[in-house]
Amino acid sequence: MRPSEDISRAMNEHGDAVWRACVAYVSAHDAEDVLQNTFLKFAMHNQTFSNAEHEKAWLLRVAINECKDALKAARAKNISLESRLEAYNGHLLGIQDNSTQTEIGVKRILEAMDALGDPPKTQVYLSLVEGYTASEISGMTNMPENTVYSWISRGRKRLREVLS
Question: What is the pLDDT of residues 30-85, one digit of tens each?
């Protein structure tokens, strides 16, 4: 078990990135549970990390896997995308589409991300939102680097189609 200072430090340094990853996959309510489970696993993880980036990558990988598990559980309960997104109705993320200069709603972005499936959802998220390179994503997902490039390219293309 890790000391509480180590857990607090990790939450302060990487908590926002883990939260963003969770919200990209699941509702805010489920994201809270996933965030807690992720840091609980971190607390129980006894191995040391080579550096802060390795620690962040590990936390993101655990969070994304937890999100996938939460989505599987939701599908088993037959919860639709629409019901998952009701909590976001009327809220905007504030991102602007460069071509139309209009705000894109959270619902539309989440629908576009859900339409991607996985892969390429994980690869696109890690690339576009978290700023990882294809080489780093390759290491995190145990995929060949060229495969990661392909999934990112396909995912970006499909996102453009859905959001345009």
Answer: 889 999 999 999 999 988 899 999 999 999 999 999 988 888 776 665 545 455 44
The C-alpha atoms of residue 94 and residue 102 are separated, in whole angstroms, by 9
List of E strands, the chain: 92-96, 103-105
pTM comes to: 0.58
CA gap 140, 61 in Å, rounded: 7
Q: Helices 52-76 and 134-141, interaxial angle, to 10°?
A: 60
Handedness of CA 137, 140, 141, 143 (dihedral sign): positive
16 SS3 class = helix
